Amino acid sequence: MGYSLSRVFVTRTDSSRTRFGWSELLAAAASSSLSNAYYPESQRGKSATLINFGLSYLSEAGANVVKEFSPDISREFRRKKLPELAMAPPESG
Predict the structure, then answer these.
(1) 93 neighbors 69 (Cβ within 8 angstroms)
(2) Which of 62, 78, 90, 92 yields a CA-CA distance of 20 to 30 A from 7?
(3) Cα pseudo-dihedral 24, 30, 33, 36, rounded to 10
């Protein structure tokens, strides 16, 4: 899980080295700043921008965790259904 969460801050280069993920930082900052244009003036400001910026990073980290563990979770749900199907009587045709 730590690896999934760290991918918000760390990225790999073409030469397989790791470095800080500036693209994620700049995208979150740009989208948070731009979103202020759609809010009424009473709801704009630095605090709203910082909150949106933090939520952007948090949602991206959550999406990484979901992408990483969704195959395991879906496999677990399918595994629980299989014994029920095995116990069902065969259909007569």
Answers:
(1) no
(2) 78
(3) -100
Confirm if 48 and 31 have CB atoms less than 8 A apart.
no
In this prediction, residues 81-87 reach a mean pLDDT of 56
| 13-33: b (≥16 Cβ within 10 Å) or e | eeeeeeeebeebeeebeeebe
Boundaries of every domain in the chain: 2-86
For the question of whether the overall pTM of this predicted structure is more than 0.70, the answer is no
- Backbone angles phi and psi of 76, in degrees to 5: -65, -40
Q: Compute the residue count for the chain.
A: 93
Residue pLDDT, tens place only, 28-64: 899 888 988 888 888 888 888 899 899 988 898 888 8
Which among 29, 70, 84, 77 has a CA at the least distance from the CA of 51?
A: 29
- Three-state DSSP state, 33: helix
